[in-house]
Sequence to fold (865 residues):
Amino acid sequence: MNPPSLSATLPVDISRVDIDATLRRRLRAEPTALNPILMFTEIDAEFEYLLWDRPIVLDASLNWQLNPAVTERYTLAPDRMSAVLVLKDGLRWHDGAPFTAEDVAFSWARIMDDRVICRKARTGPDQLASCTADDARTVRFTFRRDLPTNRWNVDFPILPKHLYEPVMRDDPTLSASEAAVALNRAPVGNGPYRFVEWVDGQRIVLERWDDYPGETPAFRRIVFQVTPDNHAALLALETDQIDETPLTPQQFARETDGERFAAHAVKGKSSGWTTYYIGWNVREGHVYTSEEPVRQAMGFALNVPLIIERVFFGLFEPATGLFHDESSVGPTGVATTPFDLKLAAEQLDRAGWLRDPEDGWRYKEVATADGSTKRVRAGFTLNLVQGSQTSPKIADIYQQDLRKIGVELRTQVLEWSVFNERNYRGDFDAYVGAWTQGPEPDDVWNLLHSSAIADGRNYPGYANADVDETLEAGRATFDETMRRACYVRIANRVREDAPYTFVASAPNLWAFERGLHGVTFSPRGPALFFPGVRSWWRARE
Amino acid sequence: MARYALRRLLVAVPTLLGITLITFVLVNLAPGDPATSAAAQSDRGLTPEAHAKLRAQYGLDRPVIVRYGAWLSRVVRFDFGRSFHDGRSVRAKIAERLPPTLGLAMIALASAVVIAIAVGGHAAVHAGGWVDRFAGVACFALSSVPRYVMGMVLIVVVGVRWGLLPFMGISSTDAADMSAPERVFDLIKHGLLIGVCFVYPLAAYLTRFVRDNMAVVMASDYVRAARARGLSQGQVIVAHALPNALLPLLTVIGMLLPGVLGGAVILEVMFSWPGMGLLMYDAAMQRDYPVIMGLTVLTAAVVLLGTLIVDLLYAVIDPRVRYA
Fold:
C-alpha cells in the first residue's frame, strides 16, 4: 500500500504548490540522443515524455487517447483504410516555429527511411501506406490494411521539419554529422519542458516551457542526475541529492526499512507488465531444447515459488503466461505450470531421455546427419546477462533442481550487447529474458509469429501455423470479444508448445523523496505515460 | 642530455604503436559489433541492406588491419573519429572528461608524495618510534583495502551517516547559480571522497617506500660522515639523506601512473564522477570502438609521457643515467 500523500493530487489552491521547485530525477545512464525517432531505451523515453508532445498519448492504464494539448480530432474513414488527424490551431515548437502537419508527414518519412537507424520508432508506422499533410493542421494517414491496430500505428514521434530537413540533405542518417549531433544533443521539442543543458556525464536539465498549450506542470526545473550505481542512488536519495529512484527487489525489501530512509523518503509499488522468462531455442540443431516434451518438463522443474521468495524477496507474482491479467486481454485462464520434479522426470522418461545409473545424468540416442546415432547428454546452456543481480540466482536454483533429475544446466554470463546478438542470431540453447507487455496484444506478434524469426524478436525460432493464423485473425478483427478469444487461444498454444517458460511478473518498485506528491503508477512505472511526471508537485514550504 | 631525451622519445613511439595495435585488434576481435548490436536492439531487426549500410558507415566492412591503418592515419592528425554511440567527436568527448580524471590523479599523486615524504621520512629518521610503528601498521592495513570497499565505506559513513560531503557527481545541481568561489568550494566538496580513494593506496605504498629507502640512506657511510663533520640533523636529512632517498621515488611514480588511471574506472562509476574512467566504462558497454581507442591512446600517451618525464628528471638528477 503506497502512502496516500504520494498520490495526493494537485490542490485547487495553487498557492500551496511550490511552482519554482526543481525535481531531481535519477538517470541510470545518459540517453543515446535526444532525438525522438532515434530513441529506443527506457532512459531515452524519460525525455521523450517531457520534451515532446505527440498527438496520441497513453494514459495510466495504457489506454489510447488523444492528446488534449495537441489534437483537435481523429477521424477514421468509413472504409477504415484511412484516417484524418486535425491538429489544434496555433501549435508551436519551443523555438517559436509553427508545429504543423508537415512536421508529422516529414517525421513519418524519416522513420521509414532505411538510412535512419530507428530501433523502435518504426514499429507501427511501418504499417502505414502513407502519411501526408492536407494542410497546415490536417494529417492524412492511409493504411496498408484495415486493422484495429491502426490507431496505434499512427502514433509516432514528431521531429521539427524546419530544423532537421536542412540537416537531412547532408546527413540522411540524422546521426553522423556535426549538425545532426548538435541537434540531437540540444533538441527543440513541443512538450511541457524545454531543453536547457546537457553536461556530459553529469546531468541533463529541462525547464518548464511557459508557452505550453496544455496543462502547466508544477515543477519549474527537472534535473536528470546521472547515477549509474543502484546503491549510490539510494544513498543519494537518503541524503537529499536526488528525489526519486527505482529500487531493486533487494533494496525494496531489505534496505529501505531504516529510520534514515523513513525520514527522507517513501516507497511506492505497483503492478507491472514486465515478465521474466526463459526462452528456449526450438530449432532442430538444438537437440535437447528443440523437443516440446522436454521444454514442458523444464517448466515443471522450475521452482517459481522458491525463486519468488529467494530471488525476488516475495515481491513478484508468478507469471500468468503471455498476457498480464490486468492487460486488455485480461485473465486468460491458462493454468500455471506447477513445480513438480517427479512430473518433469516422468516427462523426460517418456521423451526417451533416460537416466544412466552410473553417472546419474540422462542420455538419449539421437540420429545424426550421416544416418548413425550418437548418445547425447540431457542438458543446455543458459545465457545470462552480465550485471543482472537476479538471473544468476534463478539459474542457481534451477541448476540444483535439474541436477536432481539428471539434467545438466550450464550457465554462460554474457555482456549485454553480446547477449542480445546471440539471441538475434539464434545462437543459444536458452536465455533468461524479460519482456514488457505493451497496451496492444498484437505486440506478441513480434515474439511468436514465424515471420518474426527473421525480422523480429522471435529468438526461440518458434513457428506454429495455428499461432500464425490466430495472430493474423487477432490482428484483423475489430470485434473485441473475438480478438480476446484469439489471444487466449494463443496463450494456451504457447503454454503447450513452451517456446518460453514464464517465471514471474515484476512490479514497479520505487522510492521518492517524502515531499513529492501527485505520483501515480502505470504498468510502465510512475513516469512513462500521460500525464506521468507532469502531475508531480511539491508543497510550498 | 638531448641525445638521451631523443633516445627515450624514440623508444616511446613504438611502444605507443604496439599498445594501440594490440588494443585495436583485441577490441575488434571481441564478440559483438555495434552494427549487429543495433540490429539486435531493434524491434524489427534491420534489413540486410540497412545492416550492410550501417557496417559500412562504421567502417566494419573492411579487414581489421585495414581499419587499423585508416584509424592510425587519422590519429596522427589528432582525428579520433566519431563516437558510434552518439555521433559526437571522440576528441571533444575526451576533452570534456580528461580534466576531472587527470586533475584528480595529479592532485592525488602530489598529495601522496607529500604524505609519503613527511610520514615516511619521519618514520625512518625516528625508526622504532611510535610514528614508525603506527605508520607501518596503517600502511599495511590501507594497502590491503580495495579502493571500491573504501569508496563504499566513505559514502556510507561520511556521505550518508554523517552527511558531511556529497558523493555523487562533480558539482551540485544548482552549481550554475553559484558564484565562482562557491563553485570552487562545491567542486572541492564533491572531489574529496573520491580523492581520498585515489590518494590512500598511493600514500600507503609510497610511505613504506620512502621509509625503507630513507632508512637505508640514513645508515650509509656518507650520512655518518656528514654527521661527523658536525652538520645538524636537519642539514643531514635535507641536504644529504633526502635527495638520495627520493631518487628512486621518481621511477616509482612513473610506474604508478597506469594504476592510478586504470583504477579510475570503478571509482568514477561509484561516485558518478564524469571522468575518463566513467567514459571508458560506458564505451566498453556500448561497443563504442572509436571512444575506446581514443581513451587507450590518450591513457597510454599520458603514461608514456609521465614515464618519459620521470626518466628525464632522473637523468637530470643522476648524471650516471644519461651516460649509461
Q: What stands out?
A: The two ends of chain B are 11 Å apart (CA to CA). The mean pLDDT of chain B is 86. The CA atoms of residues 123 and 130 of chain B lie 8 Å apart.
